[in-house]
Amino acid sequence: MTKEELSDIYEELGMNADFWLEDGDINAGLAELAKHLFVKGCWENIVPDKDTRWIDYRIASTPEGSNNPYDGAAHSLRRLLACGASKDDINEVVRCAQAELLFSFLYQLDDPGSVDENDDYVNWNFSLVDENNNPTVSLGCLHEYVLAYDPSGREMRPRVL
Predict the structure, then answer these.
(1) Which residues have CB under 8 Å from 96's CB, separation 6+?
(2) Residues 110, 126: contact at Cβ < 8 Å?
(3) Which helix (H) or strand (E) holds 129?
């Protein structure tokens, strides 16, 4: 891939190409693109800010008394709503927990030593790979992108009430 092609992709995605491509290091530019796409994709799996439709869907798609994996969420949602909890508050708690989990997962991906039982038994690395699946550039420090990619633009800070 050329610098111009990568710059076009950056522009298409609304990214600032100047910083990452100013020295012509295509690998650094590709690594930044991969980090952007990966973390942005992770955020697509976190409940959206101010969108509580998932609560109604979860409850409607889970029969009372069901015992399938993850059904406990619907049962708990029913109880919380019955106690007067607002859907907005439930959404915020779940959204914060999911973002914290994402941060922790990405940190652990970058630091095998953060796993309590891993006493230097194994090491891992999340990397960009070439066309033959050989690692080329390490994609470390992804956890540092979590707050910046919050689609609300608030970096997971509470909404002004």
Answers:
(1) 156
(2) yes
(3) strand 127-129
Count of domains for the chain: 1
User: pLDDT of 70-123, one tens digit each?
Assistant: 999 999 999 999 999 999 999 999 999 999 999 999 999 988 878 888 877 888
Closest CA to 95 of 143, 55, 38: 55
* Whether 145 contacts 156, CB under 8 Å: no
| Torsion angle in degrees (nearest 10) through CA of 28, 114, 98, 157 | -70
Partnered with residue 138 across adjacent β-strands are 127
Q: Is residue 142 part of a domain?
A: no
Contact 61, 100 (CB under 8 A): no
Judge whether 18 lies within some domain: yes
Q: Provide the greatest CA pair distance for the chain.
A: 60
- The secondary element (H helix, E strand) that includes residue 127 is strand 127-129
- pTM over 0.85? The answer is yes
In a 10 Å sphere around its CB, with 0-12 CB exposed, 13-18 middle and 19+ buried, how is residue 74 labelled? buried
